[in-house]
């Protein structure tokens, strides 16, 4: 579903019954030119990991923050793959969960919703995500501040 918010285009994607949803996110990651910032609770999907690795190899500045428990548990393989390719990955330090499921691409596009980046989210779970583009100045400022807080409350994976 596509919608308009003032000068912004929004897309609402429902899972699991949309086979193009995964392709949409992979395509946005493949189209990144400058930056990708990802804050994710659980990330296990290999296609999304590969798209981020490919962006990094193209020279895109990629930074990732993952919930500590998930990054050392279910998401440990994706953390290992990203680190192996030289992508900075941090794990949350707080007592609470780092429960975001968000990516910011080129400071212009936000992907945010209930879906973790797992196979289950795209094949089994009732989930959704929204894509918003282009971000307004106020949205960019808010997301920059939010990313700074996430980075401060996380520790780099050695």
What helical percentage do the residues reach? 25-40%
The Cα radius of gyration reads 15 Å
* Mean pLDDT reading: 97
Number of strands: 9
Q: What would the principal axes of the Cα set say about the shape?
A: globular
Secondary structure tally, helices: 6
Strand content: 25-35%
Tell me about the biggest sheet? 9 strands, mixed
Low-confidence stretches: none
The end-to-end distance, rounded to whole angstroms, is: 41 Å
Question: TL;DR?
Answer:
The protein is of the alpha+beta class and 158 residues long.
Structure description:
The chain has 158 residues and is of the alpha+beta class. Helices cover 37% and strands 30% of the residues. The chain contains 6 helices and 9 strands; from the N terminus they run ββαβαβααβββαβαβ. It has helices at 20-30, 46-57, 68-72, 76-84, 119-123, 137-152, and strands at 2-5, 8-15, 35-40, 61-66, 89-92, 101-105, 109-113, 127-133, 154-156. A 9-stranded mixed β-sheet has the order 1-2-8-7-6-3-4-5-9, with helices on both faces. β6 and β7 (109-113) form a beta hairpin. α1 (20-30) packs parallel to α2. The chain is globular. The model has no long low-confidence stretch (mean pLDDT 97).
Question: Could you outline the blueprint of secondary structure elements for this entry?
Answer:
Blueprint: E1 2-5, E2 8-15, H1 20-30, E3 35-40, H2 46-57, E4 61-66, H3 68-72, H4 76-84, E5 89-92, E6 101-105, E7 109-113, H5 119-123, E8 127-133, H6 137-152, E9 154-156
Parallel strand pairs: 3-4, 4-5
Antiparallel strand pairs: 1-2, 2-8, 3-6, 5-9, 6-7, 7-8
